[in-house]
């Protein structure tokens, strides 16, 4: 038995060997061959985000309805394996910041009723396909999610809530929600059900606060100032609103809580207080008739400064400051409608989910035609999509959820596969591949053994010899081979790639 070693080298960035020898290497009849070792440095994949590579658009309605096509612009930069997660985060953040739930009647250019309750997720995982998904939460009361502390919700009058205990003038009576507001397109509405002005007392200890909290109110006995991220506080008719921002209360410079905002107990024309997302920021104010008035806001930058940026959980809450009866202090009774991360399917009923036929903002839930489009084919393929536009032709009808699933696994953020295939190209071997259901010249499958510097280093002390299938001698002057990943796809390498094979006569 005679054994010979042949070293193969290549600088090809696809790990393709094409080695020529200046003398014949005689391969005797019935010889065998085996892979002894293999070394390669994986090339870190990258994409340059600039120009049209920065662009992405989506449509939540008919493709010819131009106002419903929304564009986002990604942050410029060169993204490698080490920073691909930053690109994914930027993509998802920009999608969420593009949402502008309607804040006026239909037809307004300031918002989109389809975006009320909408959320985007950009899910990219190693060895799996990218999933770009939007979901739309139903605008509802969500009684199962309510946290009632020193308050009571009545079954009459469409769920009016009021203070029934605790100490007047303190934040120990509240209606909170244990699920956060939908990120991006979340909206929290509170309709004033009843109101009585004070006769005496401290105005700062009157009224109520519609707000978003930075923590789950479950188990809380009192809402602290620092819990309030944004809020609106009516204190008394004809008095200036109080507004809240990051735990600090101030008096609004111009806007009064006017008598016109309260038309009587249970009146459908009563003011609707509101807190919601708006283009990546937060806004709080009120609706009177069809018009929205903003009283306080947080910019995109201020929202990004929260603990988890725009994905920071924010919990809707109404704090009741006034007394529980109609005696000497301001008190309120409210109805709530909102969109929570606890999604609900179905079609909204005006009688159940809205505050009457003229309520605003009104959510659109009918099935609509959808598509997404990457700015370039390169950007699409980076995330595993074969075409810029999804779907390639036409649209997809969806009502409350739609996922755009990539065509192939996401590999841009990967630097290795589960295993690799060493394939001879110039000689036939008696081997078979279950993935392709055909014969393949597979010399060896190698487990994913790599070092911290992304070098694949495979070697074996027990080579597995395979037959050349040669019944007669032949001369070997050229030897071609390549390395494939587990999916029979070429890999990207950098520098010199080495392999050693052993021929056994």
Structure, described:
It is a single chain. This protein has three domains: 3-44 and 415-504, Jelly Rolls, CATH 2.60.120; 46-136 and 367-409, no CATH class; 143-353, Jelly Rolls. The strands form eight sheets. The chain has a seven-stranded antiparallel beta sheet, with no helix packed on it. A seven-stranded antiparallel beta sheet has the order 11-12-23-14-19-20-21. Strands 1, 3, 32, 33 and 35 form a five-stranded antiparallel beta sheet that branches. The protein has helices spanning 84-97, 300-304, 350-353, 377-382, and strands at 3-10, 16-27, 32-42, 46-49, 55-59, 69-73, 77-80, 118-123, 129-136, 146-149, 151-153, 161-163, 174-177, 187-196, 208-213, 228-233, 239-245, 248-257, 272-278, 281-288, 291-298, 315-320, 331-338, 368-374, 389-390, 396-398, 401-409, 419-424, 432-433, 438-439, 442-447, 455-459, 466-467, 474-485, 493-504. 6% of the residues lie in helices and 44% in strands. Residues 63-67 and 326-330 have low confidence and may be disordered. The protein contains four helices and 35 strands. By secondary structure, the chain is mainly beta.
